[in-house]
Amino acid sequence: MQSVDMTGKRILAFGAHPDDIEFGCGAVLLDAAEKGAAIDLVVLSRGEAGTHGNRSVREKEAMKAAEMIGAQVQFPSTAGDTRLRSDLEITLMAAKTIRRCLPDFILAPSGHLNQHPDHRETSIIARDANRLARYGKTPGLEGLDPHATQALLFYDISSESLGGDGMIPFLVDVSSQAERWKDLMACHESQTGNLDYVDLQLSRARTLGIQSGVRYAVRLYSEGPLIWSSLAGVAEAKAPRL
Hints:
Helix content: 25-40%
Oligomer: single chain
Number of helices: 6
Structural class: alpha/beta
CATH superfamily: LmbE-like
Largest sheet: 7 strands, mixed
Distance between the termini: 23 Å
Number of strands: 7
Strand content: 15-25%
CATH topology: Rossmann fold
Number of domains: 1
Radius of gyration: 17 Å
Order of helices and strands: EHEHEHEHEEHHE
CATH class: Alpha Beta
């Protein structure tokens, strides 16, 4: 099986807190970066309301993780941890980021209700911003050319609930990144002392992998069907062994 070259592709990942991206889709980003993709991370808070760690510690952990991915990370000015709301101001900020970063793919938390409200709100922000970024005459986005992404995809963070109504799940084989993903998640050491989130995520990925005939897999979601250029494009896909 030939490795897919992602040279020239750009990925923009949104997270509500400093560890969300790494725990939710870190293995996918490691794999994409290894295949040549450029990665940008946008973290909408510094986790300042969390039980463990503090604003400074968690920001440093996120920067360490971004360096491991080879990504650029930014912390835009927002209302902060537990206060994220999908209003027009933050949505326009995210849309401006999309127009500046010019991503081919956007990754954001899935939007199901049974989770931290910041995760849900970040999902809505990314979804709405993705649309506004491609509309040519969106007020507030003047001076930045419209940009349409190839796909907006969603990842789960801590819940086993499905991504949301109408979401189409698919699995990504991340077997080659398991050890590096473990090290990536370990960058957020302030969050792993009370509960072994690293083992939790790896166990979930291992279960999905067993179901799919690979060692480790991560589940992502699309809002609609993904279109293949031809049947040849499906050649690398595997049917899950459910």
